[in-house]
Amino acid sequence: LQESESENKLDGETASDSESKSDFGGSSPVPTSDDTPEVLNRALSNLSSRWKNWWVRGILTLAMITFFFIIIYLGPMVLMTIVMCVQIKCFHEIITIGYNVYHSYDLPWFRTLSWYFLLCVNYFFYGETVTDYFFTLVQREEPLRILSKYHRFISFALYLTGFCMFVLSLVKKHYRLQFYMFGRTHVTLLIVVTQSHLIIHNLFEGMIWFIVPISCVICNDIMAYMFGFFFGRTPLIKLSPKKTWEGFIGGFFSTVLFGLLLSYVMSGYRCFTCPVEFNNDTNSFTVDCEPSELFQLQEYNIPVVLQSVVGWKTVRMYPFQIHSIALSTFASLIGPFGGFFASGFKRAFKIKDFANTIPGHGGIMDRFDCQYLMATFVNVYIASFIRGPNPSKLIQQFLTLRPDQQLHIFNTLKAHLVDRGILGSLEDA
């Protein structure tokens, strides 16, 4: 009985937060330290902690926005690399919290297996992306063609290897805690890796689908903080005591207006609106095309109720601006719940931030907790309302078929076009 009770304590089989110390070996996470640069500490030493934090957050926010503009200028390849780096850092911050708890038992392979599973999942997702978007390049190179053909089998074999390693690492008296950590790793992979993969898919649809959603989340975060800082009085949610209704509402209207203006500016540039495609002749990315109807100015009638207010009967705008209202609304109303989810996670482990990477902001995960939720919405939105069949991809796949298969498709398509009256009769053709 004594051994059984001891095992339950070590495994963390307790229901109340007051007993949570026994879940993690009696250890508690180390409090986040102040890593504000000494230059800022000296310059802001005469201010109260509230205003000091305001200035630190403001200066670092401007620095991050500047860095964001730079990587956009450097092009899609750099953006993809940054997304990968952010994904790895977010995964590291979340797993480190679990490792600080898990390491106290000196159990084997947890950190190694966590990073191994990250490698496996990335191999699967990015292998799918390469096969989908670089089909011609893959078919041209023999090693890539073999890897592409058996990609899913290889991915599954890699995962099974990690699964067997986990089973072999199980230690008596710590089974339950080890399965807690196994589940934590997989949930982290689901949240972080899957979403970063969707971000890259959004980028291939056109940089505007990458920049506008991310910018709306950033704008909402900034404006909600500003309205809450100066006007906030009414608490919004207990998970985040500093969040207020004033900030939430002010952030919403500011973000919708910002989304409309940013979309109007970006819709006029092909480098933002054209899909990102890989040119097999030059082995580089291209963003040149004829703008679709989404990015051509259209004239819309203003509702009669509003005509007397604005003084106009019609307005010229890009159709994408209408879609931007949906994106900015989600970023303002639903996106913050990603932040609330992260706040609940941090409260569960009694920590303030995921890390100390960015002074005044916490870790990378603290800045991107809402972005991952936004990435999923944008991908679903594009698939549901925007994306159609891609002719270039169909042609690429068509050219890889056997000659008899190509001829069969040609004859089927020809007969279909004749039936619709687009081509002449089969005899004339």
Automatic annotation (TrEMBL):
Q: Which reaction does it catalyse?
A: 1-octadecanoyl-2-(9Z-octadecenoyl)-sn-glycero-3-phosphate + CTP + H(+) = 1-octadecanoyl-2-(9Z-octadecenoyl)-sn-glycero-3-cytidine-5'-diphosphate + diphosphate; 1,2-di-(5Z,8Z,11Z,14Z)-eicosatetraenoyl-sn-glycero-3-phosphate + CTP + H(+) = 1,2-di-(5Z,8Z,11Z,14Z-eicosatetraenoyl)-sn-glycero-3-cytidine-5'-diphosphate + diphosphate; 1-octadecanoyl-2-(9Z,12Z-octadecadienoyl)-sn-glycero-3-phosphate + CTP + H(+) = 1-octadecanoyl-2-(9Z,12Z-octadecadienoyl)-sn-glycero-3-cytidine-5'-diphosphate + diphosphate; 1-octadecanoyl-2-(5Z,8Z,11Z,14Z-eicosatetraenoyl)-sn-glycero-3-phosphate + CTP + H(+) = 1-octadecanoyl-2-(5Z,8Z,11Z,14Z-eicosatetraenoyl)-sn-glycero-3-cytidine-5'-diphosphate + diphosphate
Supply the Pfam families for this chain: CTP_transf_1
Membrane topology qualifier: Multi-pass membrane protein
Q: Name one GO biological process term.
A: CDP-diacylglycerol biosynthetic process
Name the source's superkingdom: Eukaryota
Q: Which GO terms describe its cellular component?
A: endoplasmic reticulum membrane
* EC top class named in words: transferase
> Pathway, according to UniProt?
Lipid metabolism; Phospholipid metabolism; CDP-diacylglycerol biosynthesis; CDP-diacylglycerol from sn-glycerol 3-phosphate: step 3/3
Give the EC number.
Answer: 2.7.7.41
Subcellular location(s) of the protein = Membrane
Recall the GO molecular function terms of this protein's record.
phosphatidate cytidylyltransferase activity
Write out the similarity annotation. Answer: Belongs to the CDS family.
This protein is called: Phosphatidate cytidylyltransferase
Can you name the source organism? Machaerirhynchus nigripectus
User: Where is the organism placed in the taxonomic lineage, from the top?
Assistant: Eukaryota, Metazoa, Chordata, Craniata, Vertebrata
Gene that this sequence comes from: Cds2
